[in-house]
Amino acid sequence: MKSISQYKAIIFSSILFVLFYNFSFFENVFKTYPLESTSIFNLISVVILLISLTIFFFTLLSSKYTTKPLLILTLFISAFTAYFMDTYHVVIDDGMIRNSLETNLEESSDLFSFQLVLYVFLLGLLPSYFIYKIKIDYSTFKKEFFAKLKVLTLSLSVILIILFSFSKFYTSFFREHKPLRYHVNPIYWIYSIGSYINKTLNSEPIVLKEIGRDAKITPEKTLEEEEKKELIIMVVGEAARADRFSLNGYSKETNPLLKQEKDVINFSNMYSCGTATAESVPCMFSIFDRADYDYKKGKSTENILDVLKNTNKVQILWRDNNSDSKGVALRVDFEDFRTSKTNTICDEECRDEGMLVGLDKYIEKNKNKDILIVLHQMGNHGPAYYKRYPKEFEKFTPVCKSNQLEDCTKEEVSNAYDNAILYTDYFLSKVINFLKPYSNSYETSMLYMSDHGESLGENGLYLHGLPYFMAPDEQKHIGSLMWFGGEIKDDIDTEKLNTYKNETFSQDNLFHTLLGLFEVDTKVYKKEMDILYNAKKPE
Fold first, then answer.
1. Which residues pair with 298 in a beta bridge?
2. For residue 53, what are the CA distances in angstroms to 49, 57, 370, 436, 446?
């Protein structure tokens, strides 16, 4: 094979990247700038600009020892990112990278498909093998330096000429359509990795900031009252969007059991803190609201579980049938229910209802304390919705039996998703029925809140994880409800609560609502953020 310079290899690879790895990007460009409304030359300039940017980037990092490994690694990763962007129309930003790295192997296997293999083979293996086999000639340091300078200057000149020549077009492109850049492959995912590393890694050891150390359970109770402890189960859902709950007016009956529970309060306008589990779960348990929350703040600051635990009167258990607690439950009792070793109800996968087995023993062991139990569901984790429920819950048919959602009809995708919601209805009903016998000896309640929503093909979008500002309502508007049993209803006026159940709330409210439920007195408590505060009966 004839040898070539490293810069020819870079130019060839850059053209390959732009033309074959950016279908999602160009699809969005054509949606934004249809041919009938803009000049074909504007669109051609985008191609040339993208190629020049890619050449500039790889040339900047090129050297005798880095060019081949960099190109091969980028080709492989870009093959994967191209598949997910083309198939599910997701965006590979730092949040998606974090969510991917924190996803377990079982969840990842749901994304495996023959189409993914084709992408990896055609866009990953074949061009990587070509780059590996070609002989690259390297000249002296001086010649390589000037060659690099020449390529950088030429590519930068092309970039500037295009931006200047089509300034009117690019003013609109960059100012009014910023989300388009999120689809550029590989430039944006490389930028996102850098952003992820910057947000995640810190040269200094993380010092956990203490909050609510003044917290105490109030009021002081009599000996008779002291017998009534709080027993609260918090269910963290997965990818359950509000508009697929029949409690919220959905045409299909997806909540037949919850509908029969008279003490269920359904919150129809609850919104998530993020669009992916890795962000929304730590955010919903943190003291920060969505606007103030970021990964480093969440990791370095105690959360609501810490505040409750530090009262020394609340026993906390986290049971997980999802990927894990995302750092929320690091300092409380944690049990993994993703395996048959701990979860006794498993078929194709371990079921959420298995998390209820053995809880009675835990309650008995800690009967002298208030108890908070968090159950983290597998819920509606996509794209293999058909796996998320036992076969007897396949009420809505026909069902999409594939993780290639674009290969199924919208009806099939919706039916599989709705069946998973139906199973969540069953699971929540089981939680309520588990709590009912304890309502004579405890003040019992259940809180349910999904972590985020899900796109099911609306506007060509699937799954979740888009940046919050550009995410559709389907990824942010979540299912949420509460149930109250026994004597806790002496403290909470459920009729009054029902009058504002349709007001807009968010996961920002959870921190303060839990403090209020456990009657915790602390300076960090904000009554105006407590969903239940205005419904509390006067003492």
1. none
2. 6, 6, 59, 63, 53
Residue/partner pairs of 125-133 with CB below 8 Å, 24 or more apart: 127/13, 127/16, 127/75, 128/71, 128/72, 128/75, 128/76, 131/9, 131/13, 131/68, 131/71, 131/72, 131/75, 132/68, 132/72, 133/1
Could you read off the pLDDT of 42-97 as tens digits, one per residue?
A: 889 999 999 999 999 999 999 888 999 999 999 999 999 999 999 888 888 888 88
Q: Return d(Cα 202, Cα 336) in angstroms, integer.
A: 28
Task: Determine contact, residues 231/443, Cβ cutoff 8 Å.
Answer: yes
Q: Name the 3-class secondary structure at 481.
A: strand
Query: Which residue, 119, 100, 111, is CA-closest to 382?
Result: 111
- Which pTM does this prediction carry? 0.84
Does residue 221 surpass a pLDDT of 80? no
Could you give the maximum distance between any two Cα atoms of the chain, in Å?
A: 90
**Residue with tokens 């701990």, as numbered in its chain:** 342
Stretch 9-32: mean pLDDT: 93
Per-residue burial over 349-387, b = 16 or more CB atoms within 10 Å of its CB, e = otherwise: bbbbbbbbeebeebbeebeebbbbbbbbbbbbbbbbbbb
Q: Which two tokens stand for residue 358?
A: 């053995």
